[in-house]
Amino acid sequence: MKKRNKKNSKNKIIWIPRILIILYILFISLFALDTEFGIGFFMHLIPSFILIAILIFTWKKQKLAGILFEIFGIATIFYYGTYQDLSILSMISLPPIFIGTLFYFLKNPKH
């Protein structure tokens, strides 16, 4: 009985980075709402589309997901210049780096 409970808790742990990245995608998608619906709206959603694509293609490949989300976070530091303001850095660039680290180091339980 204890083995089953331990396996269940491990299954729940691997959902943490997936849920966090979905919440992060929703958060950065909010920035598109300040534009009129049209080309500008979809231009603001490009980072969200990139993250959704990464998440879909790496759903079962945790190590690859970790690396790609960390690369995305580092790219945002330089592309958006978030290194200039600590609050923007912590809202935009650090979450995908942290989530990528979770993906990389959390073990996927064997079935």
Cα shape: globular
Helix/strand/pairing category: mainly alpha
Measured by DSSP, the beta-strand proportion falls in under 5%
The average pLDDT is 86
Helix content range of the residues, please? over 70%
Count of folded domains: 1
Structure description:
By secondary structure, this protein is mainly alpha-helical. The chain has one domain (2-105). It has 6 helices and no strands. Helix 2 packs antiparallel against helix 4, helix 4 packs antiparallel against helix 5 (62-79) and helix 5 runs antiparallel to helix 6. The chain is globular. The two termini are 16 Å apart.
Based on the model shown, name its key terms:
single chain; 111 residues; mainly alpha; 6 helices
Write the layout of secondary structure elements.
Elements (H helix, E strand, L loop, with lengths): L1 H12 L1 H15 L9 H6 L1 H12 L4 H18 L6 H20 L6
Helix pairs in contact: 2-4, 2-6, 4-5, 5-6
In short:
This protein is mostly helical and about 110 residues long. The protein has helices at about 1-15, 15-30, 40-45, 45-55, 60-80, 85-105. About 75% of the residues lie in helices and about 0% in strands.
